[in-house]
Amino acid sequence: MARNSSRRGLIGAVAASAVVLALGAAPFVSFGADHLDAPGAMPPSARADGDINDVYVFEGQNDDNTVLVMTTHPGAGAIAPLEYATDIAYKLKIDNDGDAVEDITYRTLFNAPRADGRQVYRVVRLTDSGATRVARGLTGAVNQVAGGGKVQAGLRSDPFFFDLDAFRGAVLGQNTRTFCDAATTDFFVALNTNAIVIEVPDEKLGDDIGVWAVTRGPDGRIDRMGRPAINTVFNSGEDKNRFNGGRPDTDFARFADNVVGVLQFFSALDTEGAYSNNQANTLAGVLLPDMVTYDTDTAAAGPLNGRALADDVIDAELNIVTGGFAFPGRNGTGAIPSDCVGAHSDYTANFPYLGVPH
Fold first, then answer.
1. Which of 28, 39, 77, 154 has the CB geometry, 3.0–4.6 Å to 139, for a possible disulfide?
2. CA dihedral 213, 221, 193, 14 (to 10 degrees)
3. 201: cis peptide before it, omega within 30°?
């Protein structure tokens, strides 16, 4: 594929300057599920090419397979480069024994771009038994995984969906917009992202797993993400950087107080009042550690059992954070139960499942 204006992933009518303006205006959800989650709505370690957007875990077209997706490079072609970094390791980590410590890692490394803009990459599977290269190929092409499965890396349509402008109005008071009004718009519908998509047989992963992604550069850890918007919503200031540098097995001890505080603050918007201490602590124990938990024998139903591309995780999070978790005595509807934005129409039924880039 030639390196031309099409490959550059320009985002249609949305200019890069408008993207940056919108990003800086939303400290609560930042850019998206995890886009630009460092302090000040910036890429962690100032590396947009190491910034994780989202993690998806769902059943493949073959229901004996599980699909692992790691999207990076927010606003690829506008505020992030299109090329994968050659000095960053992109890792998908899997815990399969319930201790929130990785038992399996799929590590993807990239060579410098060729003249046509494509990059050679290799995928290594790491376990206690050692490291095994399981795939090698070019970005943009579907490649086979040794032992069964497929992998593709490269530019795709960003599958995330959210009305960012309504958030700026309804929560931040920066405009006159409200959720679900006549101007409801999906900010992400025209954006691209880089995506590493790995589909492997369930038996390669285990039955009940926890999945998260990390990026690591020459100076150490850059970013970490499991469930959508945990770091962006519940941490602020330097705690965002500390969270990105941490491990799931220590999340509750280090960050539960942040989760409880945010839950009680925003649930006070609900007519039923704020969550009690016990309720907020119970929810913190559900949301932490930050992993996408998934029963590989089932279809995904995010955000608590995997995460499929079309799962409306932001509706679920808005509702829960603003008082909508159905504890006894609460009606299960929060102050903001939805942003009224639905899933994109460009997902595909076949591998690699994410839509073609814009």
1. 154
2. 130
3. no
The DSSP bridge pattern shows strands 292-295 and 208-217 to be antiparallel
Q: In which element (H, E) is residue 157 found?
A: strand 150-157
192 has a pLDDT exceeding 90:
yes
Per the listing, tokens 């303006």 go with 21
To the nearest whole number, what is the mean pLDDT of the chain?
Answer: 89
- In terms of Cα–Cα distance, which of 62, 95, 99 is closest to 294? 95
Locate all alpha helices (DSSP H) within the chain, ordered by sequence.
Answer: 16-24, 164-170, 230-234, 238-244, 251-267, 277-287, 313-319
Cα dihedral 189→191→192→198 (10° resolution): -40
Residue 21 has pLDDT above 60, yes or no: no
Residue whose C-alpha is closest to residue 94's, from 81, 86, 103: 103
Residue 202 C-alpha from the chain's centroid: 21
Q: With beta carbons less than 8 A apart as the criterion, state whether 331 and 248 touch.
A: no
* Cα distance between residue 153 and residue 70, in whole Å: 9
What distance in Å separates the CA atoms of residue 335 and residue 31, rounded to the nearest whole number?
22
pLDDT, tens digit, for every residue of 41-87?
677 888 999 999 999 999 999 999 999 999 999 999 988 999 999 99
Whole-angstrom CA distances from 86 to 75, 89, 125 are 19, 8, 18
The DSSP secondary structure of 45-114, one letter per residue, reads GG-GGG-EEEEEEEE-SSTTEEEEEEEESTTBTTTB-SSPPTT-EEEEEEE-SSSSS-SEEEEEEEPPP-
Nearest-angstrom CA–CA distance, 171 and 152: 38
The answer to whether the CB of 90 falls within 8 A of the CB of 107 is yes
Q: Look up residue 7 and give its two tokens.
A: 């490959």
- Retrieve residue 239's tokens: 């705690």
